[in-house]
């Protein structure tokens, strides 16, 4: 990843908190600032194409219990790649 130098004006209190976090985590302040910058860049990005290739139709509302069950089954390896029972 190529880095480019820039100047950013920040609130003194925010900078103090970044300095404390960097010291606590044993990382350079610049690394934390780059991470924050990346999070903002990615959270505001827009894509030219849809995120999913197809939409999902569950045939009606999905209850929280059904979601938890599907996730648990997937983690346990009980579902195939298409989400159907294996």
Query: Structural class, judged by helices and strands?
Result: mainly alpha
Order of helices and strands: HHH
Give a quick account of the main beta sheet: strands, pairing sense, barrel closure: none
Radius of gyration over alpha carbons? Answer: 21 Å
Overall shape? elongated
CA(first)-CA(last) distance:
41 Å
Helical stretch tally: 3
Uncertain regions spanning at least 5 consecutive residues: none
Number of E-type strands:
0
**Overall helicity:** 40-55%
Give an overview of the whole structure:
This protein has 86 residues and is mostly helical. Helices cover 48% and strands 0% of the residues. It contains 3 helices and no strands. The chain has helices at residues 12-25, 29-43, 64-75. Helix 1 crosses helix 2 (29-43). The longest helix has 15 residues, at 29-43. 0% of the residues are buried. The model has no long low-confidence stretch (mean pLDDT 86).
